[in-house]
Write a structure and sequence with these properties.
Helix content is 42%, strand content 12%. The protein has helices spanning 13-33, 47-51, 63-75, 95-107, 118-134, 149-164, 169-172, 191-198, 219-231, 254-263, 301-304, 319-326, 361-396, 423-440, 467-482; strands at residues 142-146, 180-185, 206-209, 235-242, 267-271, 296-299, 312-316, 400-402, 410-415, 446-450, 453-459. The protein binds pyridoxal-5'-phosphate.
């Protein structure tokens, strides 16, 4: 093999220009047509691969062909940024956020630590402070950006356990100590039991506390369960409150839970992955009272701050506790930051799982600075108002029933075409409606179980949604019921 004398994979200026202009043309076309598309393209397994060249090219393919194939992939995707996409917890990406991802990828900085990505590290630490301040947690917040809420929750549980463990779990593992228990409501997101499983704490050691009729954790039962566990010589170590549950969007009573956490010396984690930005709405602020007492908070810029996936965040105050969980002082040579001042020796690997990390903060920074916090807060308030409008519309309609109070931006309801139908009949009907609606492509709802009933669920975290999209969704459901 002759030794390389010039760059092998770089392209000339004209080719670079072509890649850049064809790609941005496609992005512009997508963003300007998304509103007119079906929410979900007609699709079936294998259709995507049938639409593109599936043979791995040996000599490469022209950019026009690749962009054309990207267009087909986009056409065959579900459009989470469509104004009538209300499933799960999904938001559209802001245009500036999408280009932020491109800039980050072009720079390809590896945000492992300040030495590796000085600019990116400083910006990420600033973003963490901004997010802490925005949601009213702490304007000196520490923390890190993560792939999403699941990773943020897992890191929080790891820090909590290491902080409260009486043995050196990091060296000895979990084998020699009494089981340590976690407390969360029955409405907690699946990422909490999953994290307990991954971390070896065991899913059975996540005590699920029953909720009141509004799906909020019952604090009396929380206290009772902790007392029972203590009397059995188990070791309660953490309570997780939800600030915006995934099913119905309610906020647990944070102050009362913080009191119990303090009483039993537990780590208090708040999962605000979806709902924490709801605190930017003046009318909802009071729901979040007590958030500032948390030891750690998860929140996802890629959910209700309209930043493209992936961008989660874990906030905490006690940097030493987080560091103690992940940094053993026995690091390999390649991660030792020798000869740097404290600030310049800062490393994200001391606070989380990942070593190589994308420059996620760039798209969060650009999105927040481009619009400004007032406009972002306004978009969130509008989402909240639209969810309330949907709630009122179904409450006022003869043929609908609201199944849970609309607390933030999630509305759970069902279609009730006539009086006297049993819950079982209504469950079956509404499940069928949901399937028809999802496949139909005019609007997209997901489902939840509320007090044992099958609910159609709309989560509005979407700056493109307008009042007419809500009205149309109600009409689509009525049409689907007739099919
Ligand atoms: C309350 C809550 N926590 C955690 C998560 C997990 O977030 P991610 O999908 O970013 O891992 C979600 C996802 O919807 C959520 O709603």
């Amino acid at each position: 093999m002759p030794l390389r004398t010039q760059s092998s994979l770089d392209v000339n200026d004209a080719e670079l220009q072509q890649i850049s202009s064809e790609s941005s043309k496609l992005v512009t076309e997508y963003m300007t047509t998304i509103t007119e598309r079906q929410v979900r393209a007609e699709n079936h397994a294998g259709k995507t691969l049938a639409a593109i060249d599936t043979e791995l090219s040996s000599e490469g393919r022209p950019v026009q062909q690749l962009i054309e194939e990207c267009r087909k992939v986009m056409d065959l995707s579900r459009h989470n940024g469509h104004p009538r996409f209300f499933g799960y917890v999904a938001s559209p990406s802001t245009p500036i956020g999408a280009y932020g991802d491109l800039i980050a990828s072009a720079l390809n900085s590896n945000i492992t630590c300040w030495r590796s990505g000085a600019a990116g590290t400083e910006i990420e630490r600033m973003i963490v402070r901004w997010l802490g301040a925005l949601i009213g947690y702490d304007d000196k917040s520490k923390g890190l950006l993560t792939s999403g809420g699941s990773m943020a929750n897992m890191i929080a549980l790891m820090i909590a356990q290491r902080r409260k463990s009486l043995v050196n779990t990091s060296r000895e593992g979990l084998w020699y100590a009494a089981p340590m228990t976690i407390y969360a409501s029955e409405e907690v997101h699946m990422s909490i039991p999953k994290a307990a499983d991954i971390l070896g704490f065991g899913r059975d050691n996540v005590r699920t506390i029953a909720c009141d009729e509004r799906q909020r954790m019952r604090v009396d039962l929380l206290r009772q369960q902790i007392q029972t566990d203590v009397s059995k010589e188990l070791r309660p170590f953490c309570v997780v409150a939800s600030a915006g549950t995934t099913n119905t969007g309610v906020v647990d009573p944070l102050n009362a839970i913080a009191d119990v956490a303090a009483e039993f010396d537990l780590w208090f984690h708040v999962d605000g992955a979806y709902g924490a930005p709801g605190s930017l709405d003046a009318g909802k602020k009071s729901l979040f009272a007590g958030l500032e007492r948390a030891n750690s908070v998860s929140l996802d810029p890629h959910k209700w701050l309209y930043v493209p996936i992936d961008a989660g965040c874990l906030l905490f105050r006690n940097e030493a506790a987080a560091r103690a969980a992940f940094s053993t002082g026995e690091e390999a040579d390649y991660v030792k930051t020798l000869g740097y001042s404290d600030e310049e020796a800062f490393a994200f690997w001391d606070y989380g799982v990942e070593l190589s990390r994308r420059f996620r903060a760039l798209k969060v920074w650009l999105t927040l600075q481009y619009y400004g916090s007032r406009r972002i807060a306004q978009a969130i308030s509008e989402d909240i108002a639209l969810a309330a409008y949907l709630g009122e519309s179904v409450s006022n309609a003869e043929d609908f029933e609201l199944l849970a109070q609309v607390e933030l931006s999630i509305c759970c309801f069902r279609y009730v075409p006539r009086k006297g139908m049993s819950d079982q009949e209504l469950d079956q009907l509404n499940e069928k409606i949901m399937e028809t609606v999802q496949k139909g492509g005019r609007t997209y709802l997901s489902n939840a179980t509320v007090n044992g009933k099958f609910a159609l669920r709309a989560c509005i975290t979407n700056f493109r949604t307008t009042k007419s999209d809500i009205d149309e969704t109600i009409a689509v459901i009525r049409d689907a019921a007739k099919k």
